[in-house]
Design goal:
The chain is mainly α. 68% of the residues lie in helices and 3% in strands. Helix 2 crosses helix 3. The longest helix has 27 residues, at 91-117. This is Putative integral membrane protein.
Length: 123
């Protein structure tokens, strides 16, 4: 596996570990949004973005696959939280995971487009 390919694996393991800490989760709110939802959005945005980065030249189709896989990973994590003390499965957490995945893909796509725009025609 290319060295870049390990990046999303590491991020996924960190997200999984943080999600399975008993009684964990962000408390409080920032405006109308709970801190835990923001943590979901950020974590899954980073996971989706690093997944596309690992692919080097993703297409729209692979971006869609990344979205589905990252969101599905969020669903599996939600299922794994059920028996963890102080944790619970939450449909809203899964929605936040999907939003994060979409934002991570959009952010990566914008950065990649900016990168491509800055290349000279000889590159």
């Amino acid at each position: 596996m290319r060295s870049r390919g390990w990046l999303p694996v590491i991020v996924a393991l960190l997200v999984l570990a943080a999600s399975l800490v008993p009684g964990g989760g962000g408390g409080g709110t920032i405006g109308p949004v709970g801190v835990d939802k923001l943590l979901h959005v950020v974590g899954y945005a980073v996971l989706a973005g690093t997944s596309l980065y690992a692919l080097r030249t993703p297409t729209r189709r692979t971006a869609l696959v990344v979205f589905v896989l990252v969101t599905a990973f969020g669903g599996v994590v939600e299922l794994l939280q059920a028996p963890v003390p102080g944790r619970a499965m939450s449909l809203l957490d899964l929605v936040a995971d999907g939003v994060g995945a979409a934002l991570g893909i959009a952010g990566w796509w914008l950065l990649a487009a900016t990168d491509r725009a800055g290349e000279s025609p000889t590159e």
